[in-house]
Write a structure and sequence with these properties.
two-stranded antiparallel sheet, DNA-binding transcription factor activity, TniQ, DNA binding, transcription
């Protein structure tokens, strides 16, 4: 047989391993491999111990380019030949030492020798072996939905544990393991048991193990993985499989099978329990006595159990969910406590991704020390020491010695810790996030003198059930400060000299401005201590000696001072604080609180100051029998919360008596209380009271009332000066002259006095009606009736007295003379005559024929018409 001249050429099957193709070709040609390989340009290795020549025991691992070119002369392309070797999985599912053509068994569960197999596949394809069966990651056949078999059913050897003997014609589908004769392996006799007779466990189409194998096949066929826990953080396939190996080892080393019940079906666990019962040496698939999972598990069942659990972990949606799943692989916390540290879990796997490292940290987080939980940000969505050194080294500048009061109240656990001891500990804990600081260094940076107390307090908080919530809040806040530093440089403020804070003369001035008595030394000392803590962020026992408060009675007095703050005094003190900062060249707000939206979604252990109804609080705190404790109980909150709210939103003071206002020199403030702007305007504009009368009414000096009017923006009038209310001449003329309204009606509409409107009408040249006589309303009534009357009455219904004139005319018509009529009507005869004469002038003719000796008084035709109209309409 000449070189590369084969009488029969056999095409490789899709996915077939190179040695399987060699054996199939040799079997078809009925020739041993020792004759076939030279024809393919390959040299058979005749001795296993000969390691000096580059002739591999297993050609399936890797072909050199020259070897691939030689074999390609048979008609199979070099790239297809490479796909038939484990080289196609190199740096993804296996690691190969290309110099020695050895699979590195300690990495990625590489298998140097041996192969699992599917009996059904061997039966269907005539004994051909897919390359994927050689991978440590393959434990199931997705075509026939069953676990792969591990051993020959007769001799119990692992197939392909050694290369096929080159001097024997290969028999496909049969076990090629050598038989033992007299305790020694035969070089020619082979088992030749049909491997199709091997039994393996059947899996359903929805079996978790089969789904895990499908997921693994998809991973191995990919370049990067960006789903499951890798969403948003894609990782190379090799790294993902390293993560898979790391988690699978944890599953295999679970203390009990009960730890895996939630992830692995019962049928697999039952089978695995049988494998675990095998002793080393009893079977080729027995588990090693120690370091299980360090290398490829010997059995498909063991591999299936570990990888089914591992796929379950890596398929979760985020790191914290994966950690919760992984945590179930661990022993009980009490047994495991003290055995774990962030450095020890790094030994759980090499070349792993940051994602699985974050999962491991989150999984063991509850078992770590509180400082390690903060350093590695265990409570964050992605644990790990991610913060840059520069940011951590700068963070302390923006953290006060006393933790921010609002956040301190929100994070206050139910351990009975006082805020004044809790707040420095929280500030120290904030510096631990993402850093390697120790307690001593954190205390030095924050100017906290008692570092041992911080350690003790943090340990107490760590033992509280709400620790995870508190640590989550601290991690979020640290991240926020690293990205968005606080507007206050607390480190600079810690170094300021506060000796001259709030001098006595300034305190006296702001006391007068705020309407309080300045008192002696105690009240000014408390005001300085209050300002010191707000400005410096340090406790008051670190203040200058002349206003330091470091005893319980002094702290009680300071708490009372804060509860008694008024809005005016708080505003004055804030101005003093700003002046103090400006004097040191600092342009910063007096205080600052981190945004509360960082706490979204957390069930906080403490109380929320914003939940306190401020108006109700002010009502309660100003009651005569009020105390902070009673107020807190009535509001269902804590004393510290009430004090904090009052420091930020002080309650308005109770109204002072006149004597108290005079005693404190606070008359204008008192006047403002008893005489608000609306009442001042009503008295001055509507009632036209003078400033003197208003001052006398309330017992206030004229100067105070005048100043109050200017403060309210009320334009005061001067004697004889113009009226401050603007009146349009045309409008006033129309209302008064045309509409015949009275000045009183118009003045009421304008909100001014009759006298002022009369003065304004004269200034505008409005023709005024004479005063006296009947009311203007009756005149308007007469005019309205005249419009509806017949023409003869319309002429006489003019002005006031028209009805009286007509009634007397009608009554006089029944008498024989004017004198008799006047006597009977009990009116003056001259008045009656004048009224009749006016009617005659208005009608343009006589109404009576006057009486004489010969005839009595009688109506003229005009008089008769007028009388008839009167009887009919009036």
């Amino acid at each position: 047989m000449s070189r590369r001249t084969l009488p029969i050429r056999l095409a490789p099957l899709p996915g077939e391993a190179l040695d399987s193709w060699f054996e199939a070709t040799a079997h078809r040609l009925h020739t041993p491999l020792t004759h076939l390989l030279p024809q393919l340009g390959l040299s058979p290795r005749r001795s296993r111990s000969n390691r000096t020549v580059d002739i591999p025991i297993n050609w399936t691992v890797l072909l050199r380019p020259a070897e691939a070119d030689a074999v390609a002369a048979t008609g199979t392309a070099p790239d297809r030949l490479a796909a038939m070797t484990l080289e196609q999985y190199n740096h993804r599912a296996v690691e190969i030492d290309t110099a020695t053509r050895q699979v590195m068994r300690q990495v990625l569960w590489g298998r140097a020798r041996g192969s699992r197999f599917c009996p059904d596949c061997l039966r269907d394809n005539g004994g051909r072996w897919p390359l994927s069966w050689r991978l440590g990651w393959t434990f199931a056949c997705t075509t026939h939905q069953r676990l792969l078999a591990d051993l020959c059913p007769h001799c119990g050897h692992i197939p392909r544990q050694s290369s096929h003997p080159v001097h024997v014609i290969p028999q496909q589908g049969l076990c090629a393991a050598p038989l033992a004769t007299n305790g020694r392996r035969s070089t020619s006799a082979r088992c030749h048991t049909p491997l199709t007779d091997a039994e393996s466990r059947h899996l359903g189409p929805d079996h978790p193990a089969l789904l895990a194998q499908l997921a693994l096949d998809e991973i191995i066929a990919s370049v990067t993985i960006g789903s499951g826990i890798y969403t948003g953080r894609p990782q190379p396939v090799r790294t993902v499989l390293a993560d898979m190996h790391s988690v699978a080892v944890r599953a295999l080393n679970a203390p009990s099978l009960s730890n895996l019940v939630s992830f692995v079906p019962a049928d697999l666990l039952d089978a695995y329990e049988g494998v675990r019962a095998l002793k080393p040496g009893q079977s080729a698939i027995a588990n090693p006595p120690k370091r299980l999972g360090f290398m490829t598990p010997p059995s498909a069942i063991t591999t299936a159990v570990s990888l089914t659990a591992a796929v379950r972990v890596l398929a979760t949606n985020d790191v914290q969910d994966a950690a919760e799943t992984l945590r179930q692989f661990f022993p009980a916390a009490r047994k495991f406590h003290g055995q774990l540290s962030p450095t020890s879990i790094d030994r759980w796997g090499h070349a792993c991704s940051p994602v699985i490292k974050a999962v491991r940290l989150a999984a063991v987080g509850p078992l770590l020390r509180p400082t390690d939980q903060l350093r590695y940000r265990v409570a964050s969505p992605f644990p790990g020491q991610h913060t840059s050194t520069d940011r951590v080294s700068e963070r302390y500048r923006f953290v006060p010695t006393m933790f921010w009061p609002t956040w301190s109240l929100l994070l206050q656990p139910g351990t009975g810790l006082l805020p004044r001891v809790m707040r420095p500990a929280l500030s120290a804990a904030l510096l631990f996030v993402g850093s390697r600081l120790e307690y001593a260094e954190a205390a030095r940076l924050l100017a906290d003198r008692d570092r041992s107390n911080a350690r003790h307090i943090i340990q107490q908080v760590f033992n509280d059930p709400q620790w995870r919530t508190i640590s989550t809040a601290l991690v979020r806040l640290a991240d926020h400060l690293d990205a968005h530093p606080a507007p206050i440089d607390y480190q600079r403020r810690r170094k300021l000299d506060y000796t001259d804070l709030l001098p006595r003369e300034v305190w006296d001035t702001i006391s007068r401005n705020a309407g309080i008595l300045p008192g002696r030394q105690v009240r000014s000392k408390l005001a300085r201590a209050f300002l010191f803590e707000r400005l410096s962020g340090m406790p008051t026992d670190l203040a200058p000696t002349h206003f330091r408060t470091n005893t319980a009675p002094e702290r009680s007095l300071l708490a009372g001072f804060i509860a008694d703050l008024t809005p005016d005094l708080a505003a004055e003190l804030d101005l003093v604080a700003q002046d103090f900062l400006r004097s040191h060249g600092i342009a910063e707000p007096t205080t600052w609180q981190p945004p509360k939206n960082l706490l979204a979604g957390l069930v906080l252990p403490g109380t929320d100051p914003d939940a306190v109804e401020v108006k109700h609080l002010h009502e309660l705190v100003r009651r005569p029998d009020a105390s902070v404790g009673r107020v807190a109980q009535a509001l269902g909150t804590t004393i510290e919360t009430v004090r904090h709210v009052l420091s930020e939103q002080p309650a308005p003071p109770l109204p002072k008596t006149l004597a108290q206002a005079r005693a404190t020199g606070d008359m204008r403030r008192w006047a403002r209380t008893v005489l608000p702007k609306e009442e001042f305007a009503r008295l001055y504009h509507d009632q036209q009271l003078s400033l003197r009368k208003i001052a006398d009414k309330y017992g206030i000096g004229l100067k105070v009332i005048t100043a109050l009017g200017r403060e309210y923006g009320i334009v005061t009038r001067q004697f004889g000066g113009p009226i401050p209310i603007s009146v349009d001449r045309d409008w006033l003329h129309y209302q008064y002259v045309v509409q015949q309204r009275t000045l009183g009606q118009i003045a009421a509409e304008l909100g001014m006095s009759d006298t002022n409107l009369l003065r304004r009408a004269r200034q505008l040249g409005i023709p005024l009606r004479s005063s006296g006589g009947p009311s203007h309303a009756s005149a308007l009534t007469v005019r309205a009736q005249a419009k509806a009357a017949p023409p003869i009455l319309r002429k006489v219904l003019t002005g006031t007295g028209a009805h009286e004139r007509l009634r007397r005319f009608a009554a006089a018509a029944d008498y024989r003379s004017m004198q008799v009529a006047a006597h009977e009507l009990d009116v003056c005869s001259s008045a009656l005559v004048l009224q009749i004469n006016r009617l005659e002038r208005e009608l343009g003719g006589p109404l009576f024929h006057r009486a004489n000796r010969k005839r009595p008084m009688a109506l003229t035709p005009l008089g008769e018409c007028l009388l008839a109209a009167i009887h009919q309409h009036l």
